[in-house]
User: Fold these one by one.
Assistant:
Number 1:
Amino acid sequence: MKKFINLNNLTPLNKTVSENILTALTYWLISHINYLLFSTIGLVPMPIWPAAALAIVLSFYKGLKIAPGIALGSILANHLSLGAGLLFSSCIAVMNTIGPAAGAYIMKRKVTRYFRIKSIFDLAVCFSAAIILTPFMTALGGIGSKWMLGLLPLSEVPAAFGKWSWRIRWQHCFSASQCLPGLAGGTNRK
């Protein structure tokens, strides 16, 4: 039986392009399903954003070469699924890409790709990168863009920022509790 998609037979450029297209479509699909689930019960904005966890995991393993896929997925999710304007969706995408990339970069400085953590300090750095820095950056981009584009009055910025960043923090905590035990079984630190 033939494999549906075999990225190993592609040139490096075609592989990177394919991975970014798959990332964009996966980010959008996860976000769209999330929207459909929560909108049926009237809970919009959603209390969790699973695509944020996808973005930090892909950034951790693929680095900056996957950034275009994360950005495009974010634009598709915010514009097509959530109905945000294209300019606002593009602004959100900037920090939805930079935030996970920065968090993943910091985490990679302390652990291997198999997520071997040597000390409590390394654990604290990884926790801070994923649960504090990344949500802060994405919330700053989303709420800051909304305010700068005139879509949110200044008086509502602090509350909106808090809701946005906590939604992503909660999702990262939940995702980490599901993923990290499996990742920790890898080889020793290089």
Note: Residues 177-190 have pLDDT under 50 and may be disordered.
Number 2:
Amino acid sequence: MIKICFLGAGSTVFSKNVIGDCMLLDAFKDATFALYDIDEERLNDSKMVIDALNKDYNSGRATVEAHLDPREAFRDADFIINAIQVGGYDPCTITDFEIPKRYGLRQTIADTLGIGGIFALCVPFPSCSTTRRSWRKSARMYGCSTIPIRWR
């Protein structure tokens, strides 16, 4: 059975969208989704939403787990999706909008392309580098992105 670890699962809307899309694919209908976040309340909210998705749209076929310990979430994972937000909404996301605004640039999320994408990687990258050692010990595949990278 495939296991997908989702880092930053406390972002309920984003994790719901990504995991919900995964549950629509035959290859992932019976998967285990290991949710991980540092915020227990947000993690529990996300688990409740994803459990409901699993029940309503996937006939309850997937297994959904919530973890506060990343090592447990990583254990035996086939894929790790890293969706963490270092620093939280306030001040980090607000700053991501305010700095370009000072220079006459209006950008929305800007977390994938251009200068916004570069800085969106710079903030969480040290966290990815630190966590990578745990990923290597626990997961079969890992990557500091939503694209799995085979390391064996």
Note: Residues 40-58 form the longest helix (19 residues).
